[in-house]
TrEMBL record:
Keywords: ATP-binding, Kinase, Lipid biosynthesis, Lipid metabolism, Magnesium, Metal-binding, Nucleotide-binding, Phospholipid biosynthesis, Phospholipid metabolism, Transferase. The keyword Magnesium applies. Its EC number is 2.7.1.107. It comes from Streptococcus loxodontisalivarius. This is Diacylglycerol kinase (ATP). InterPro entries: ATP-NAD_kinase_N (IPR017438), Diacylglycerol/lipid_kinase (IPR005218), Diacylglycerol_kinase_cat_dom (IPR001206), Lipid_Phosphate_FormReg (IPR050187), NAD/diacylglycerol_kinase_sf (IPR016064), YegS/DAGK_C (IPR045540). It is an enzyme of class 2 (transferase).
Amino acid sequence: MMKTQKRARLIYNPSSGQEIMKKNVADVLDILESYGFEASAFQTTIEKHSARNEAERAAKAGFDLIIAAGGDGTINEVVSGIAPLKKRPKMAIIPTGTTNDFARALKIPRGNPIEAARIIGKNQTIQSDIGRAYGDKYFINIAAAGTMTELTYSVPSQLKTIFGYLAYLAKGVELLPRVQAVPVKIKHDNGVFEGDVSMIFAAITNSVGGFETIAPDAKLDDGLFTLLLVKTANLFDIVGLIRMVLQGGKHMNDKNIEYIKTSKIEIEPQTDKRMMINLDGEYGGDAPILLENLKNHIEFYANVDEISDSALVDTQELELEEIAQKFSHEVEELSEHE
């Protein structure tokens, strides 16, 4: 009996990253064919959940591999289409967005669809954790809450496109004085936290907004979130924390930070004020909320050799550090004039 050929479905966002993917679809399909796949492509539309619906359809149709090409938003949608299913195909990523946090964690070349597609040929995979919120929403990088994260919603989408999750840093000088600490109750694997926080941050990957030092020891496959609670709303303290992040993750031991490893997080606001939840950089709903880590839920093609080599320096990360250093300097100047 003849062995049936493996099938791959490329789901790509045509407008992501200056339409770079649009120009490379034929070449990427050729590469997939050379690796033994029968390959086809789907271009996402402006219809709501276009990528998610196609991912679910392709998975149910028995495709062996689904490739998400676009920014973190497209990847999130494709994951959301596959994650609820019992039988899930393998996934690969061709990052063409701006921050590409998940691709950065998998060490996939960014902004170069051909090189990204070639990672599949290395045949190295990782069983990655996925976050689930409210029982039916999924995230691959972060879930965040608190007034500090709500500032991202005031940022024009143009800025968000340029800076990704760090968007609010660009407007931070104007917005940070509005940061407040609010009372919360947070249940986690090791107990309960009750107190005031300005930011709640649950990370799956070690890359957030392009920085790999916010949750430096986060692992993609350990079944645990890295939960960071910022317990201050003081401008000087926050600037100090940003500095420590830039100094290689020294914030982890600061008195203003709770740093917890946990597989489940239950967030209950202890106030009538609305608490919005940010999932992968977009508004995802309001607290109260239960976040669950689905351990090793989806198998991704990854550049496993490089994941283990933490000595590699990322040029884009250096640029982002420059932006943040400038930001921290501007905030200090603002504080001195108050």
